[in-house]
Amino acid sequence: VAIVLAGCGGEADDEGLASQPAPDQSSFPSANGRTLEQVLNEASAEGPVISPAGQVFHEGDNRYAFGVFDVGGDQITDADVALYVAKGAKGKAKGPYPARVESLESEPEFESETTADDPDSARTIYVADVPLDADGEWRIGALVRSGDTLQASLAPSAVVGEFSDIPGVGDKAPRVHTPTVDDVGGNLAKIDTRQPPDTMHEEDLADVLGHDPVVLVFATPALCKSRVCGPTADVAEQVKSEFGDEASFIHQEIYNGNQIEMGLRPQVRAYNLPTEPWVFVIDENGRITESIEGAASPEALEKAVQEVTG
Question: Which of 210, 224, 272, 306 is the S-S candidate for 229 at Cβ 3.0 to 4.6 Å?
Answer without folding.
Answer: 224
